[in-house]
Amino acid sequence: MSNSKQSNVGNFAAIVIPATILVAFIIFFFVLGSPDNFNDPETKHSPKSGNMMGMVYTGGLVVPILISCFLMVWVFFVERLLTLGKAKGNGNVSQFVRKIKSLLSSRDINTAMAECDKQKGSVANVIKAGLVKYQEMEKDNELDKEKKILAIQKDIEEATQLEMPMMERNLVVISTLASVATLLGLLGTVLGMIRSFAALAESGGGNAEALALGISEALINTALGIGTSALAIIFYNFFTNKIDTLTHGIDEAGFSIVQTFASSKN
Prior knowledge:
The protein has 9 helices and no strands. With 266 residues, it is mainly alpha-helical. Helix 3 packs parallel to helix 9, helix 4 runs antiparallel to helix 5 and helix 6 runs antiparallel to helix 7. The two termini are 32 Å apart.
């Protein structure tokens, strides 16, 4: 992947993270914190019966941070889905690799390269790089066969290294969110419990409303943190499996290219 593409991907994360935080705080203050959600619009301490938005608002300032994490998980999910779909190419990767192996067995390199042009994507790019080097080594009369094989392997490895950053980029953000969301939920839980015990201490154990508010804050943050973390873990494993499938296809086709050349008379 070129430096400009890497920069664009990095810029995406740099824009998304502050944007989702801003959106989360807007949602918190103007949607969840709308006066219509509360019995007392000024204090906003008593949500209307059955009003979930007002109830979530009582979770405190950790809530918008957790909402931003939740939004980030979904934004990066869509971004990774589109990117890996592009990396996969136009058709099924397994079928494409089988077709390439079949063409290699009949030594029809030109048709194999044409199939790569049709397939497109990261897998096809790597395989085509190996096929181009294959043809170069067929015409080379100076290097011995072992060096030619090493040259083909080197080109395949270099092409793979260029494509892998695009496939793996932003996965670290999703995995980080899986851990951070849980910790933030725990932080919100602790703050809620502190608030509960402080209310008990101030009232001598008789302020039920303040106690309920603190417990509500604790449980809301716990639910948001665990829910966001669970979603991030599911998405991370989903994309990891997708990448493994793509890299397996690259390795399988690359091995076939090398073995086909090794068995040739060149």
